[in-house]
Amino acid sequence: MPKIVFKEPEGSIREVEAANGNTIMEAAVDNGIDGILAECGGACACATCHAYIDEAWLARLPEMDDMEDAMLDSALERRKNSRLSCQIEITDELDGLVVTVADN
Which of the four, 21, 31, 42, 59, has the lowest number of CB atoms within 10 Å? Predict the structure, then answer.
């Protein structure tokens, strides 16, 4: 199983195993990662799973679609490496991905 490294809002770093096919948001919720609220359950309708992807990994992710882009406009402190964690499916290629949880 791929491992995802989460940097939580208070500064702790947690590495969790995540199943292929799940989203980063699901891995965060399943493992009690602080700051990933996921109020809409992954429907790309709330931006409470907003996170910053380590820039070294951005090119490995699928392109952001228009819906995710529009939803991120409502997120606090959007950055060029902002993504909604509910929109990124976990694959073996993302083993070691570093995700910093935004202030959601």
Answer: 59
